[in-house]
Amino acid sequence: MNRHPWRALAAALAAGALVPAAASASPPVSWTGVPSANPKVTGASPANVLSPELSETAVAWGSLSLDGATSAVPYYGYDGFTAPTVLTQAINEAHKTEPDKNTYLVLPGGQPGADPNYDYGTHFLYQGHESGTPGAITRINLDADQAHRVTLLSTNVSAIDGSTWDPFAQRLLFTTENSSQGTYAATLGYPAQVTDISGAVGRGGYEGIQADSAGNLWIVEDVGGSAGSPSTHAKQPNSFVYRFVPDHPSDLSQGRLEALQVISNRSGDPIAFHAGQAEADITSPDTRDLHTPGEEFRTRWVTLHDTGTDGTTPFSANALAKAAKATPFKRPENGVFEPGDHFQRFFFTETGDTNSLTEAGAAYGGFGSLQELFQRDPSASTGRLRVVWQGDVAHTGLDNIAFVSRHQAAVVEDAGDGLHTQRNALDSAYLLDVTEDQPAPVRFLAEGRDPSATFDAEHSGHGNEGDNEITGIHVSDGDPTIAGLLGVKVPTLFSGGWRMFWTQQHGDNNTYEVSPAP
């Protein structure tokens, strides 16, 4: 049930002719829930289990040789420095690149690759790689044969986490979780020309990145905090939500970085980070309120850095956010706008502590959440925040998010090996109806564990990454124009060109397209 008057206001504001026609014509998806997660059993490699209405096909896999390969990065999922290079299920296997967040584009003019005589088609899936040495940007050529299926676009980057397409700047954007490394803008062509824009947008533990209809960039940060005492299994909120406002949307080298500040319902003061007070922040009444369904908060944006006055030397966004009394969260991973709503509602996931023993529990965000920020327009200076959904030990570690219909968000777990063992359950992906308070999650994917990940989880070695995790969930029709910006159109999944992808990171590093079951 919708109990939020500002949500009703937003619906009224959006009721005019500006609402895309698909907003009223697109029905919700209806998928049968998978009853349970796959258990974590020593030596076992269970298959992925999808809702019976769905199927999946691998569009790329770790051992696939790259078009334009280098000696350092010869394969989609493996680096090339190990000698001998063993690609799977061996202690001395090659170091894995870990393809991460996906971005789908349809480019009618096509794109070049390493082979000047080959037609690479018009449908492309871009991704950065989270663990590569060096980092890498690749492009899956969905129309191409196996020899030309994945093109290596650049290794002039550090390890990558988030990605998106900015139609205003005509650049692919890539974030890195390493707060000492850059944030990148890359051209589409081959090879990609990469620019570090962290002198404007800053550096942090950046993950999700998303453009809005005004050309602003919304960035969420995943930085773990200090453990408490006596709450030794819980972590201090230590990550922030940012908005970059460029001076001109087509130029990302100049502008203003802001951070979200939430106002306490108790004191009227900003809910802020307190250095050296991990336990107090973990167990504060404000932290509890932020994760209590039914609570709503006033928000405002505070300026951290402006290139007009502060220059373009790369800077720590996290440090400036703390100094400005922005509000820390429990490891946000990704954020997107609800489609067909004029970019008024931004939803972001919190991972939480990924430990079943967390003393924070569900009440204090220990198992993460899905948060909703409402503003009258994407450039507004104030808004309202509420928790849509509070995680529990069986549904936690939320990572990527994508809308599959007007109000249904697909959210995926990255709970980690330790929590997999604690709860005897591998990761899952869920549908959540964001119009409801504490919606019941519908599991549409119970992730399995491929043989490589099973081997990795039970042996130590420099290239081993443990259990599989779900990443890169992405739903798009690939429209590269401003009118096709994610959040403008309401998805009509599996029709009208709308497609769905995800990556089973670690192990064999397969990237899948999800389709209707035959």
- CATH topology (level 3) name: Neuraminidase
Q: State the name of the first-level CATH class.
A: Mainly Beta
What CATH architecture label applies?
6 Propeller
Spans of 5+ residues with little confidence (pLDDT < 50)?
12-19
User: Would you tell me the structural class of the helices and strands?
Assistant: mainly beta
Helix share, percent: 10-25%
Question: Approximately how much beta-strand content do the residues carry?
Answer: 25-35%
Strand order of the largest sheet: 11-12-13-14-15-19-18-17-16
In oligomeric terms, what are we looking at? single chain
Radius of gyration: 21 Å
Distance between the termini: 34 Å
CATH superfamily annotation? TolB, C-terminal domain
| Biggest sheet statistics | 9 strands, antiparallel
Describe the structure.
There is one protein chain. The protein is mainly beta. The chain has one domain: Neuraminidase. 10% of the residues lie in helices and 31% in strands. The chain has helices spanning 5-13, 22-25, 198-201, 278-282, 285-290, 307-310, 317-323, 417-423, 451-457; strands spanning 49-50, 54-60, 99-106, 123-129, 137-141, 150-154, 163-166, 171-174, 184-186, 194-196, 206-211, 217-221, 241-248, 251-262, 296-306, 332-337, 345-350, 369-374, 382-390, 398-403, 408-413, 428-433, 442-446, 469-476, 499-505, 510-516. The protein has a nine-stranded antiparallel sheet with strand order 11-12-13-14-15-19-18-17-16. Strands 1-23-22-21-20 form a five-stranded antiparallel sheet, with no helix packed on it. It has a four-stranded antiparallel sheet with strand order 2-26-25-24, with no helix packed on it. A hairpin with a 4-residue loop joins β25 and β26 (510-516).
